[in-house]
Amino acid sequence: MNDRLEYFRTLASRKLSLERFQHTLGVEALAVELAPKFGVKEGDAGLAALTHDLAKEYIYPEQLKKAREWGLILYPEDLEIPQVIHGRVAAYMLQNLYAIKNEDVLNAVANHTSGRPGMSLLEMLIYSADLTEPGRNFPGVDKLRQKLYHDLKTGTLACVEHTLYYLKENNKPIHPLTILTYEDLKNGKASKGG
Length: 194
Prior knowledge:
Layout: H1 2-15, H2 18-34, H3 42-51, H4 60-69, H5 77-80, H6 85-97, H7 103-110, H8 121-132, H9 141-150, H10 152-169, H11 176-186
Helix pairs in contact: 1-2, 1-3, 2-3, 2-8, 3-7, 3-8, 4-6, 6-7, 7-8, 8-10, 9-10, 10-11
């Protein structure tokens, strides 16, 4: 596993800008730190963290072209909110170009931008670590980190609420999966505790 993590760490360093690579390392550090606390395999957390943004630096038309070609457009809003599609593109690349078969890792990468109802512990961890890794610096991030350190499900719900608030305040479109994720977490239906 360590060799594989090193391979993907090197791949990320080559594919991403320095700023994005530093963000990726921050997500890895936080996800790996919290993984044992919440019953997530550290190797899976590290792999998902290192690969979650592999497709992020393709320009939107290229991301959408790949998503169309690979059958990854699932909602009309995917075309209106292209910021969410890079996770699915990265997951497809991991599965088909790098032979990653771990469905939980693939789902964590695919859904780290919008969330989804019924997220696994790993999916919640990567979603939340993406927003709260040590390099993030926005008002309220410390409170989100505190909630995340205390409880994965509560922390993830707080992260989704923060995202919804940010999008509404800035008049940005909201993907239906994010709303469904919020409702799912609010109703306590996310998988297996945390």
